[in-house]
Structure formats: C-alpha cells, structure tokens
Amino acid sequence: MIFTLFMLFTVMNMTKAETCRSTENGPVIPTIPLVIFLERVQEAALQAYGRKGFDAKLFVDMSLRQNLSATVEAFNKLPRTENGSIPANDLDVFIGNYLGGPDEDLVYVEPVDYVAEPEGFLPKVKNSEARAWALEVHSLWKNLSRKVSDNVLENPELYTLLPLKNPVIIPGSRFKEVYYWDSYWVIRGLLVSKMYETAKGIVANLISLIDQFGYVLNGARAYYTNRRCASFSHPDL
Ligand SMILES: *[C@@H]1O[C@H](CO)[C@@H](O)[C@H](O)[C@H]1NC(C)=O
Ligand SMILES: *[C@@H]1O[C@H](CO)[C@@H](O)[C@H](O)[C@H]1NC(C)=O
Ligand SMILES: *[C@@H]1O[C@H](CO)[C@@H](O)[C@H](O)[C@H]1NC(C)=O
C-alpha cells in the first residue's frame, strides 16, 4: 500500500515551483468571473468595514445564493457614498441576502476508516502518556474530515470551491479547503493512523486536479487555478 502511494507521489512529482504553504497570504489572482466579482465584494468590504480585523479570504470564499448575473445586478444597485464606498449597513444586507457563508461548501463527514485505537498503532510507543497524546492527535482526524457538499456538486458555478469526489482532511481554522502541501503531511499521518481508505481518496482527489488542470493546485479553490506549489519530492518522502 505504501509503495502504491509512493508511486502515485512520484507521478505527481512533475514540476518544481516555488514553495507555498497554506499560511501564504499572497494576492488572489482573478481567474473566473465569480472570483472577479467576489474580489469586488472584498474591496467594498474593506472600504465599508475598515482594515481592523479584516479577513480578505472570508469574502473570496463566499458562495452565491443566486446566479452571478442576478447577484452582480443587485450589487451594482447598492447605494454609494461620495467617495464610492458602500455603506456598511447596505453591504451587510446584501451579503446576508445574496452570499453564502464560507462554511457551507464543505460539510462534516465521519471518516469510514477511523477507529479510536487502530490495530498496530505506533507499536514502538510504549510510554502511556506519550501513547495517550498520540491517540489524542489521532482522534483529530475525526474533527478535520469533510466532504464537498451536494450543493457544490449540483451547482459548482456558485462556488469557488472546486468539487472533489472523495472526503478530504482540512488544515483547520480559516483554511477550510484542501491544500497540496498540507496533504503530504496529512497522508503521512493517515498512514500512521492506518486510515488507508481516506489516504487513497485524498491521493485520488489530487490526481483529479492534475487531470483537470495539468498539475495540483496550491489549494482546491477556483482562485488558485493559476498558482501551483512545490511538489512532493523524493527527499521529502
Ligand atoms: C439568473 O437568475 C435570475 C433571477 O433568479 C433569472 O431571471 C435569470 O434568468 C437567471 N440568469 C441566468 C443566466 O441563468
Ligand atoms: C467614505 O465615506 C464614508 C462616509 O461618507 C466614510 O465612513 C468612509 O470612511 C470613507 N472611506 C474612505 C476610504 O475614505
Ligand atoms: C473534536 O470534536 C469533538 C466532538 O465534536 C469536540 O468535542 C472536540 O472539542 C473537538 N476537538 C477539537 C480540537 O476541535
């Protein structure tokens, strides 16, 4: 099994670009009309709400409740102040009516192969405290497992999230989608946890991105389709 995964990684090791991580804060590059529109919302939000506590990623991760043309039309009708900004109250109402929160596109799913203490789990770790801690870390797989919601699969044009067939493990906090570089560590950890089905599904997801875009994206969002990462390479394995 590990050998199979190794072979898959070797297949994926096609290009070597600059290293990028899920913590990267680089600019989002507009790619599709939805991303271009969400960037307008992002800019309006920055003007309306100010820089304090502003999370730029929040806005480009939002989804549409109606089609893009209806949404853009409503957005264009919002009142503007003299300096061109949209009053915060009007923007709040617009976002509430037309945009979905970033938590709606990935939904929780229990991993099929998770057990509280897998057979043969870290056999060399005998110390009971270290073992308890390792099992606690292991139990986080259950918290971080997600699948793309049916809504995204049915209406992908309303979401920046790219539909992936198999369940995924998300890095957590504001990074709620799959990241290529994190996937490497996730898969290694899943193998330790004997969660081979989940690991295989994640590899298949990455391969589906190669089929679609020619390489694995930095992250599974439409705004990452022109950003790639350093690929897994042999020294990492
Ligand atoms: C978008 O939605 C509006 C209102 O729901 C509808 O009238 C319009 O035909 C739709 N446009 C497209 C391109 O689907
Ligand atoms: C624009 O004007 C509004 C109200 O007139 C004000 O609250 C806001 O701070 C201004 N924004 C900028 C970027 O100057
Ligand atoms: C994991 O999920 C369980 C059950 O939903 C919850 O009680 C626990 O606090 C979560 N742990 C973390 C670290 O999120």
Task: Characterise the protein shown here.
- The protein has 237 residues and is mainly alpha-helical.
- It has helices at residues 2-12, 33-49, 56-60, 68-76, 88-98, 128-144, 150-154, 180-192, 196-213; strands at 63-64, 99-100, 106-108, 145-148, 168-169.
- A three-stranded antiparallel β-sheet has the order 3-4-5. Strands 1-2 form a two-stranded antiparallel ribbon.
- Bound molecules: 2-acetamido-2-deoxy-beta-D-glucopyranose (3 copies).
Task: Give a topology summary.
Blueprint: H1 2-12, H2 33-49, H3 56-60, E1 63-64, H4 68-76, H5 88-98, E2 99-100, E3 106-108, H6 128-144, E4 145-148, H7 150-154, E5 168-169, H8 180-192, H9 196-213
Antiparallel strand pairs: 1-2, 3-4, 4-5
Bound molecules: 2-acetamido-2-deoxy-beta-D-glucopyranose (3 copies).
One 2-acetamido-2-deoxy-beta-D-glucopyranose binds next to helix 4.
What share of the residues lie within helices?
A: 40-55%
The hetero compounds bound to this protein are: 2-acetamido-2-deoxy-beta-D-glucopyranose
Sheet/helix structural class: mainly alpha
Number of distinct helices: 9
Give me the count of strands: 5
Estimated radius of gyration: 20 Å
Biggest sheet record: 3 strands, antiparallel
Average pLDDT figure = 82
Unreliable segments of 5+ consecutive residues: 1-25, 232-237
Q: Give the N-terminus to C-terminus distance in angstroms.
A: 15 Å
For this structure, the quaternary state is single chain
Elements, N to C (H/E): HHHEHHEEHEHEHH
Percent in strands: 5-15%
* Strand neighbour order, sheet with most strands: 3-4-5
> Could you say which overall geometry the principal axes of the C-alpha atoms support?
elongated
